[in-house]
Each structure stands twice: as C-alpha cells, then as structure tokens.
C-alpha cells in the first residue's frame, strides 16, 4: 500500500490529472472539491500529505491549513496557488505549510516536491521514534540499586533537576560526575538530561579520550571550509548541535591545554567560534562532564586548568564503586541475568548459591560494567538452568594485586598487610602505592596501558603517579 495523499482541489480536471499521475507512481490519492469534504476524508483516511488549493469555494485555504495543522501538526501540507497569489502562499508558509506550487501545475515538479515532503516526514518520524526510545532507556530508573549510597545519588540528581525547572533566567549549572570506570557516569548524565526540562532537546555526548587533539577540537567547535588540510566543507560542531540541550563530555581529564582554554571561554561567554572562523556564535547548552581521574591532583600537577575545573564543578556527583554499595551486586546480577536471558532465549536460568556468594564477595574493580560482562559470559558458558560459581570466571582480587588476605566482604576492601615486603600497618602509603605500581608494571612487562588496567585506573592517572613517585 502506497502513502496516502489528500488532494483538496475544486478544479475537477486538474484534480483528476494530479490523481492519475500520482496513483500511477505508487501513491494512493483521494480527492475533495470542498474544504468540508476534505475535513471528512482527512478524519477517515490514513493521510500522510495534503495537497491544498488555497482558493476553495466554501472556506479560505489558510483557514483550512490552520484546521489541518490543529488536527495533526505532523502531517505535511503543500499548497497550490494561482498566479498573482504569491503573498497568500507566503502567508501559508508562515502558517506551517511545507511548501507551495503555482498554477499551472507541472506534474513532474509536483511529484518531486511530494517525494521530498514525504521523505522528510519519514525522517522526522524515525527521529521521533529513536528520540523516544532513547528517552525511555534513560532517566533515574536506570540508576539501579537499593543501597543507601545509590539512593543518595538519585536524590541529589532529583534535587538539581527540580531546581533547574524553576530556573527563570540564565543557563543551568555545570555538573561534574566523578567515579571509577564502570560506575555508570553516562547513565547519571542521561538522568540529568531526560528527567529535566531539556529532555526534548538534543543530548550530545563525546568521549574526550577517543580522539586526537586536532580532531577533538574540530568535533567540538566545528570548522570552516579550508580551516585545515582536510576541511573541504564547513562543519557544525557538537557544541552548536547541542543548542537548547545538553553536551556531555566524558573523560574530561584527558583534554589538552588548548582545548581546555576553549572550553573555559565557552563556559564563561556561552559563545563558540568554529576552527578557522571569525564569528562567535551564541549557544544555549547545559554542560555535564565526567571523569575517573583525580582532577584535583591534575590541577596541582599543572595538567588541568584550575579555572576550568572550578567552572565545571558547580555541582558535583560522586558515584560510589560497586564494592561500597552493600547488597547491590547481587541485585544487579539478577537484573543482568534476566536481561541477557531474554536476549539469548534462556528464560528460567538462575544463579546457584555458590555463584551468588562469589558475586557478593568479589570487590568488582571494574564495577557495574564488569559485573554485567561477567553475567553475560556466565550465561553463555552454562548449559543447564543453573549458573555455578565456576561459570563466572572471576579472577580473585588477591591474584591481581598480590594480596594474601581473604576476599573482600560486601561493601569493604580488604587490604593486604604487606606488599613486596612493605609494611602497610606502618602508614607508609606512598611506599605501598609505589610497590603496587612496580608490581603491576612488572606483571605487564612495562606496558603502562596494561598496568593501568590491572590497577583499575586510567593510563593518565598511572603516568601521573609514576612521575610522582619517580619510578623509572
């Protein structure tokens, strides 16, 4: 079945020609000679587009347009006007018409306009669907957890969002979300956006560590044609794309000084200048940034601008690691098991008591992300309706860091009494940290990236600590 077109035209010959031409090209056209008949057919049929003559015998076309837009603001309306009625067509465009054609109508040109209008209608429909789907998978309900630590996080987000709804003038405060890798910083950022008054506007996210500095600057601020070697076309940056909505900058601690300076100017002036451009553009953007690095230490080390840091942290949210969320590991494991069981058609699978005990005892250095991946792996490795401890494939924390004590209890981190002969009870924290870093580097054969993964910290944080301790 083709897409439905309602043609409201009082000239019978013209209406017949348009109907036959479009019917032969796959559309389903119904015709009406008056506004009243057009309203009746509009209510009865599945109409995707209206071709509207602005000079009808019973009601002015602009009134018909207004009524159609009132009944369904999403339907596209193309107006047909006679010679000398250009001003009426302009008024129709102001009233919400998609476009207009003048008589005598060239059928091939009309068909091109119909194709374009219906193509945009499909695009807008798809965009609306994906926006709605994205919004339904975001918000406070996605921040799962019954622990008091997560309840406090949700309440803090709720309080900030409520305050934002009452904002009379100016932009909402910048938010800095801090937490270890895998704690759900992106989910928290989405909750701020989709629970707030900007939920229908764009939510644009960028991982600052995923791009080299020259590409990062271009992605954020856009560029003019010829700004650099490969800039063959003008490009709008993500800051401009987020106008009216939220810009989420993940891994903000990985930005270079030049980008930090531009971000500072953006936060202060609320203007953006494209790379190679000469004009500042005003933007209305809500800023949310996230990091798993100790920005305070980076500021002291001169690697992160202090003025930008204080601009970014008007509101701070600290996401607790999973080991500090008493009882949440088991609850989240059950949630992920149900989720993956539906995906793989394995309903009815459950954890054994041994597996649940292991989940409760593990410190989860990779936090919720690690837990989710472990549960999916366990489901794939099991064959029956029970997931045993062996299916989890969890490496004990003592094997990773060389600890000799028992596995950590829920919500706690058990610390070994010594590392490589260094007495932790003596309070020699720097010595212990140096010893742990040395052990991780030895285990990874000097690979800093792998050593950072072993320690559960970012590569930049490890590099900073290597420099701090003078480790060769």
Automatic annotation (TrEMBL):
InterPro entries: AAA+_ATPase (IPR003593), AAA_lid_NorR (IPR058031), CheY-like_superfamily (IPR011006), Homeodomain-like_sf (IPR009057), HTH_Fis (IPR002197), P-loop_NTPase (IPR027417), Sig_transdc_resp-reg_receiver (IPR001789), Sigma_54_int (IPR002078). One of its GO terms (molecular function) is sequence-specific DNA binding. Keywords: Activator, ATP-binding, DNA-binding, Nucleotide-binding, Phosphoprotein, Transcription, Transcription regulation, Two-component regulatory system. The keyword DNA-binding applies. Residues 4-118 form the Response regulatory domain. One of its GO terms (biological process) is regulation of DNA-templated transcription. Residues 143-380 form the Sigma-54 factor interaction domain. SMART domains: AAA, REC. The modification 4-aspartylphosphate is found at residue 53. Pfam families: AAA_lid_14, HTH_8, Response_reg, Sigma54_activat. This is Sigma-54-dependent Fis family transcriptional regulator. It comes from Microvirga tunisiensis.
């Amino acid at each position: 079945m083709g897409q439905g077109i309602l043609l409201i035209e009082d000239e019978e010959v013209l209406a017949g020609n348009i109907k036959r031409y479009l019917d032969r090209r796959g559309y389903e056209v119904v015709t009406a000679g008056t506004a009243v008949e057009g309203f009746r057919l509009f209510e009865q049929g599945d109409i995707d587009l209206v071709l509207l003559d602005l000079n009808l015998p019973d009601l002015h076309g602009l009134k018909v347009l207004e009524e159609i837009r009132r009944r369904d603001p999403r339907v596209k309306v193309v107006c047909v006007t006679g010679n000398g009625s250009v001003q009426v067509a302009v008024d129709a465009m102001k009233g919400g018409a998609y476009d207009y054609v003048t008589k005598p109508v060239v059928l091939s040109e009309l068909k091109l306009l119909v194709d374009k209008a219906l193509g945009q209608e499909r695009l807008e429909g798809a965009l609306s669907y994906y926006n709605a789907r994205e919004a339904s998978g975001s918000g406070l309900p996605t921040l799962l957890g019954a622990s008091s630590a997560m309840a406090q996080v949700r309440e803090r987000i709720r309080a900030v969002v409520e305050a934002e709804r009452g904002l009379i003038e100016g932009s909402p405060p910048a938010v800095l979300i801090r937490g270890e890798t895998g704690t759900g910083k992106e989910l928290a950022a989405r909750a701020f956006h989709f629970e707030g008054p900007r939920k229908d506007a764009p939510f644009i996210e960028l991982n600052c560590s995923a791009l080299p500095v020259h590409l990062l600057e271009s992605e954020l601020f856009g560029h003019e044609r010829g700004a650099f070697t490969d800039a063959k076309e003008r490009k709008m940056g993500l800051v401009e794309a987020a106008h009216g909505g939220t810009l989420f900058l993940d891994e903000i601690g990985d930005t270079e000084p030049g980008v930090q300076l531009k971000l500072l100017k953006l936060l202060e002036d609320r203007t953006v200048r494209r790379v190679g451009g000469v004009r500042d553009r005003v933007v209305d953007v809500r800023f949310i940034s996230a990091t798993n690095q100790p920005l305070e230490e980076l500021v002291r080390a001169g690697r992160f601008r202090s003025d930008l840091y204080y601009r970014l942290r008007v509101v701070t949210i600290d996401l607790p690691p999973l080991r500090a969320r008493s009882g949440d590991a088991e609850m989240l494991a059950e949630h992920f098991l149900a989720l993956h069981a539906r995906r793989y058609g394995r309903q009815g699978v459950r954890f054994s008591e041994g597996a649940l005990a292991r989940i409760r005892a593990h410190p989860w250095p990779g936090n919720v992300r690690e837990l989710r991946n472990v549960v999916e792996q366990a489901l794939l490795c099991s064959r029956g309706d029970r997931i045993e401890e062996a299916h989890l494939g969890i490496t004990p924390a003592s094997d990773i860091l060389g600890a000799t004590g028992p596995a950590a209890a829920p919500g706690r981190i058990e610390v070994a009494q010594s590392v490589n002969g260094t007495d932790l009870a003596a309070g020699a924290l720097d010595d212990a940290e140096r010893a742990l870093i040395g052990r991780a580097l030895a285990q990874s054969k000097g690979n800093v990236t792998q050593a950072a993964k072993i320690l559960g910290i970012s590569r930049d944080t490890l590099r900073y600590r290597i420099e701090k301790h003078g480790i060769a």
